[in-house]
Specification:
Helices cover 17% and strands 39% of the residues. The chain is α+β, with helices and mostly antiparallel strands.
């Protein structure tokens, strides 16, 4: 939960109550807050303070957090931990807006609108991190994308209380971004990358 957000010039200091996770944290640790990788600069009890750069404020929704707001918190992956899911680096690429929420029993389908530069890096059935939550893209269209959210995710993350028109942080799958950049370097004359391009290159 957010305790305070203090802005100073083009940067800010964010204080979060980590709860029980504070027992596993120390100054200098990297922790993802709503998908944005931040470093602990101060730690007092369960409250951790993070310095937020101008780049993070510009690319993410961190600067819009209000006191008492709930946030998703994830500790950095340890080298000896079991790896599950897709690689999430905490490097936010931009933001999207919740357009529609369809609930079916305990499940939900979220539809988002997003800038074209973000959509150009997504592929159907590919991975995307929404506020740090690893999800699979169910559908992709020219204006946005949809994801299906299971009951456990709705229960344990902020998506369970999400509202239409809310903005969320987006991180594109690093593997997709790497492949896209590589193929663009092979064909620099092309302005974009399509699914057909990927198929022709054997992906």
């Amino acid at each position: 939960m957010v305790k305070t957000l203090s802005k100073s010039g083009d940067s800010a200091a964010l204080t979060i109550d980590l709860g029980q996770l504070a027992n596993q944290a120390k100054i200098g640790d990297s922790i993802a807050i709503n998908g944005a990788c931040l470093t602990i600069s101060k730690l007092a009890g369960t409250q951790a303070t993070f310095d937020v750069s101008s780049e993070t404020l510009a690319k993410s929704t961190i600067g819009k957090l209000a006191p008492s707001a709930k946030v998703n918190i994830e500790l950095a992956l340890r080298a000896d931990d079991r790896f599950g899911g897709h690689f999430v680096l905490g490097h936010v690429d931009g933001s999207a807006t919740i357009k529609k929420i369809d609930k079916n029993t305990n499940f939900a389908t979220f539809t988002f609108t997003a800038p074209k530069d973000l959509l150009a890096q997504m592929i159907p059935k590919g991975s995307v991190a929404i506020d740090g939550i690893s999800l699979t893209i169910a559908e992709l269209n020219p204006d946005g994308f949809t994801v299906a959210v299971i009951p456990q995710t709705l229960k344990e993350t902020t998506l369970g209380q999400a509202k239409i028109a809310a903005q969320v942080n987006i991180e594109i799958d690093i593997i997709t971004k790497t492949v896209r950049k590589y193929l663009q370097q092979l064909s620099p004359e092309k302005s974009g990358l399509t699914l057909e391009d990927l198929r022709q290159q054997g992906f």
